[in-house]
From TrEMBL:
Compartmental location: Cell membrane
Protein name, entry field: ABC transporter ATP-binding protein
Cellular component, GO annotation: plasma membrane
Domain of life the protein comes from: Bacteria
Molecular functions (GO terms): ATP binding
Biological processes, Gene Ontology terms: monoatomic ion transport
UniProt keyword terms in alphabetical order: ATP-binding, Cell membrane, Ion transport, Membrane, Nucleotide-binding, Transport
Record's bilayer topology term: Peripheral membrane protein
Length: 90
């Protein structure tokens, strides 16, 4: 079974490039918080209709917000080459 990740990244890069070139707002629903943090300028975390966090990924994707969102002990880390946080389990 081949990975869909390269295709997801290709589409996100294309959408990001179109957003920058056209100056159009793009609204997407992503279930991968790391990809959302990497490609979005602004993220919103909704759970059961309740707003849990909103803002730039580097500001709002934190260990605390991830726990509230997923009910699991996740942590965020920063990688110099990446603009947003990377989410890790445990």
């Amino acid at each position: 079974m081949s990975s869909r990740l390269p295709y997801q990244i290709e589409i996100l890069r294309l959408v990001q490039a179109l957003n920058r070139a056209q100056g159009q707002t793009v609204i997407m629903v992503l279930h991968d918080i790391t990809l959302a943090s990497r490609y979005a300028d602004h993220v919103i975390g909704l759970k059961q209709g309740k707003l849990l966090f909103e803002g730039p990924p580097s500001d709002v994707v934190t260990q605390e917000s991830l726990f509230d969102f997923f009910d699991a002990p996740l942590r965020d880390t920063r990688i110099d080459a990446e603009p947003g946080p990377v989410v890790l389990s445990g």
